[in-house]
Amino acid sequence: MAKLKLAGEVKIGDKVLIDDQYYTVTGFEKSNIGKHGKAKCRIEGKDEKGSQKVIIRTTDSEIQVEE
Q1: Can you give the pLDDT at residue 37?
Q2: Of 67, 20, 17, 66, nearest to 45 (Cα)?
Q3: Alpha-carbon gap, residue 4 to 34, rounded angstroms
Q4: CATH number corresponding to 2-66
Q5: How far apart are the C-alpha atoms of 34 and 37, rounded to whole Å?
Q6: Are the CB atoms for 35 and 48 separated by under 8 Å?
Q7: pTM for the complete prediction?
Q8: Structural domain boundaries in the chain
Q9: Contact 6, 61 (CB under 8 A)
Q10: What stretches in the chain show pLDDT beneath 70?
């Protein structure tokens, strides 16, 4: 079962959906609001096969998380 969560609320160990595949979050960084935009977060993930992926989203965007 999957649910939507704000990208800024993701924690290390969560399983997030990236490009139609679930990745376990291995790293998370959040930046402050800049003078020309919104706060962003950098999410690093690793899948079951060991391949890694990094995505950058605004902290208020929704991301699908496996429960």
Answers
A1: 85
A2: 17
A3: 26
A4: 2.30.30.30
A5: 5
A6: no
A7: 0.86
A8: 2-66
A9: yes
A10: none
